[in-house]
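Justification of computing resources. Each target in the renewal requires a structure prediction run like the one illustrated here; the chain below, 185 residues long, is used simply to show the kind of job we budget for.
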Amino acid sequence: MGDRKTALLALTLLVPAASIGIIAGLYIAPGIWGQTLSVLCQLWLLVFPIAWSVFVERKKLSLSLPKRQELLAGAIWGIFMFAVIVGIYSFLGQQWIDPVVAKEKSYQLGISSANIYLIVEAYFVLVNSLIEEFTWRWFVCNKCQILIPHIPHPQLAHTRSEGVKVNRQRPSASKNTQLFRSRMR
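Resulting structure tokens:
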């Protein structure tokens, strides 16, 4: 029962930060204060799981870098998805998205130049992706598995048995890589 309470406490301290940051940055204070709070919440999403694992659960963290073929598969899928997004926008997006409203909203969010836009995009590609994998797919899913142990989750089986570890071969990554290879042949 102690593990379940600890898992619930960890989720309670972590999960609301994502919504708080978005709401503050977009609605409550869409200026420098809201953006600052949004950045702090994003940092919390990345730092909290590490601190919790090290200081509360007393686990040793390890990190495995992705293999070359995993990076290649990710790059190919990324380019493919970029092409799909550009294609859909070319056919439908120009009718649905008003460029004046989009530009106005970007200025409200502080994206007022090409350099700032590139910095924001680099953040989403690098940092937000890391938060997505590390925080949500590893930490939050692991805590949810502790709270609801009778629901099997194939992506969590390896994290529960090995403790805190970022694996080189995640089931979803290897399945995607195999699927990609089979379609390329």
